[in-house]
From TrEMBL:
Name of this chain's protein: 3-hydroxyacyl-CoA dehydrogenase PaaC
GO BP field: fatty acid beta-oxidation; phenylacetate catabolic process
Species this chain originates from: Pseudomonas vancouverensis
Pfam family, one: 3HCDH_N
Keyword Oxidoreductase: yes
Keywords: NAD, Oxidoreductase
GO MF entries: 3-hydroxybutyryl-CoA dehydrogenase activity; NAD+ binding
Annotated 3-hydroxyacyl-CoA dehydrogenase NAD binding domain residues: 10-186
Record domain 3-hydroxyacyl-CoA dehydrogenase C-terminal: where: 190-287, 420-501
Length: 505
């Protein structure tokens, strides 16, 4: 089945933030669009709002007057549900309540033709459950846009137990024709993005709780080493802690309290205290007038280093060596176990053990652990940790080497898998389980995380790039270190390592 023709009549119910955005997207694509809301006048007001938004784009030269007029001419506010009788696609974006949505769809079945496709923009309710009491449950699917709908490219096409696969293809092609990046997903809690993204927040919150570093340092590491657009604290301040905490709790409960999704007491306290983030003027950071954003912590060294010894392959951190050479550091290569020696210090990419453990188990004095960077050749910052009792001079030499390469160096307490490595390993682990459980394909999971939450790379492709054996070792060490189920590696990750395959082959 191909995309709906632009002559197909689309209706959007719910003229709030999402409904208005979705109506705009469909109208821009050329469909006649009816907008309905149960608050009198709300649909007309929403269309006026769209007109103002488009007007600003015309003023700034980003949109032609003709394009704006064509979009607005396609939009019509209606006040009665009966006006939707001859629609071909109806997208619901009303209040997030199962019974209210079920009632609405039952009512629509009585009004619309049998050919009409029904879609819900729900982000947390089961499509199977919404469709359960319908006469034609096969015609209901999820069409999950991201906020703001006209800007965010991702659309999750969600199939419930009864959904017709041909309609999923039709909505996929239609979303593509609307300029979006659609992905297919089964109706499971959180779909792709709201499930796979949970560790991004959870691991930073846990590191904060354990005193690994403060918020600005962890945020800066996620941005400047991890390549993420924002760190978890600044991002949840933007999303709103009430919203983010509610999603976490809903996914946690939906997976029968699997500790992988355990909500954070730190975030709960913010919600309890009304510190909801930007919208309330205070979250992890203050947004009061004149508030100064605290700076990330850095560790500096005045030592001078000109030579280092690379023993074996540094794994994902290997690109560090060319960066050092480019900065004029002589890199002597030898066989060995993936260590970088400078003066009395030994540096190595974390394998998920704490520095104190690894130093003892591997007999390494003055061990400095390195965190993961998305791209070691470009990252501006890197996290390190070390075991108590390190020789201060050796620490100075290790830090100096990283500074010679151009990194700002942030120190974490001796935490397993540091910050970026731990987060990416857990994201990949969740993505692997979603893949194992048939929620979506590897390509769609990666695309969803890039287009829906702007990750620099899909978590599965990222794990492939790090090396699946290393990711597995990191998770095993996290699980052993914490003694917690939360860090149990996905069966699929183990299988792929044993088979010598990646997630994408
Ligand atoms: P909103 O509160 O901004 O808008 C909801 C609109 O629906 C309101 O204008 C309300 O008057 C109207 N409404 C409520 N019950 C109705 C009914 N029975 N019939 C007709 N109109 C009704 O909510 P928002 O944020 O636009 O969310 C709508 C849906 O989209 C929810 O299911 C939500 O979970 C989902 N969603 C929200 C996202 C977000 O970031 N806000 C992102 C993706 C999905």
């Amino acid at each position: 089945m191909t995309a709906l023709n632009t002559s197909a009549r689309v209706a959007v119910i719910g003229a709030g933030a999402m409904g208005a955005g979705i109506a705009q997207v469909a109208a821009q694509a050329g469909h006649p669009v009816l907008l309905l809301d149960n608050r009198p006048g709300a649909a007309a007001q929403a269309i006026e709002g769209i007109g103002r938004q488009l007007g600003k784009r015309v003023d700034s030269g980003k949109l032609s007057v003709d394009a704006r007029n064509a979009t607005l001419a396609n939009l019509q506010a209606v006040e009665a549900i009966e006006a939707l009788a001859d629609c071909d696609l109806i997208i619901e974006a009303i209040v997030e309540n199962l019974e209210v949505k079920r009632t609405l769809f039952r009512q629509l079945e009585g009004i619309c033709g049998e050919h009409c496709i029904l879609a819900s923009n729900t982000s947390s309710l089961s499509i199977t459950s919404i469709a359960a009491q319908l006469e034609r449950p096969q015609r209901l699917l999820g069409l999950h846009f991201f906020n703001p709908a006209p800007v965010m490219a991702l659309v999750e096409i969600v199939s419930g137990l009864a959904s017709d696969p041909a309609l999923a293809e039709c909505l996929y092609d239609t979303a593509k024709a609307w300029g979006k990046k659609p992905v297919h997903t089964r109706s499971t809690p959180g779909f792709i993005v709201n499930r796979v993204a949970r560790p991004f927040y959870a691991e930073s919150l846990r590191m904060l709780q354990e005193g690994a570093a403060d918020c600005p340092t962890l945020d800066a590491l996620m941005r400047e080493a991890g390549g993420f657009a924002m760190g978890a604290f600044e991002l949840t301040d933007l999303i709103g802690h009430d919203v983010n905490y509610a999603v976490t709790c809903s996914v946690f409960d939906a997976y029968y309290q699997d500790t992988r999704f355990l909500p954070s007491l730190i975030q709960k306290e913010l919600v309890d205290g009304g510190r909801l983030g930007r919208k309330s003027g205070h979250g992890f950071y203050s947004y009061a007038e004149g508030a100064v954003r605290p700076q990330p912590a850095e560790i500096n060294s005045a030592a001078s280093v000109n030579v280092c010894i690379a023993e074996g392959n540094l794994g994902a951190a290997q690109a560090l060596l060319s960066r050092l050479s480019e900065q004029g550091v002589e890199v002597i290569q030898r066989d060995g176990q993936g260590l970088l020696r400078v003066g009395d210090a030994v540096l190595a990419l974390s394998d998920g053990r704490m520095a104190c453990q690894r130093a003892k188990e591997d007999g390494l004095r003055n061990l400095i652990l390195l965190d993961l960077a998305f791209d070691y050749s470009k990252a501006q910052r890197i996290a390190i940790s070390y075991a108590a009792g390190i020789d201060p001079q050796a620490l100075d030499q290790g830090v100096a080497l990283l500074q010679r390469a151009g990194f700002k160096v942030s120190l974490l307490s001796d935490s397993p898998a540091l910050a970026v490595l731990r987060t990416v390993a857990m994201l990949a682990n969740e993505a692997a389980d979603a893949l194992l459980q048939g929620v979506a394909s590897a390509a769609d999971i990666d695309l969803a995380m890039r287009a829906g939450v702007n990750y620099p790379q899909g978590p599965l492709a990222w794990a492939d790039a790090i090396g699946l054996a290393h990711v597995l070792k990191v998770l095993e060490n996290l699980q052993a270190g914490y003694g917690e189920e939360r860090y149990r590696p996905s069966l699929l990750l183990r299988r792929r390592v044993a088979e010598g395959r990646t997630f994408h082959d």
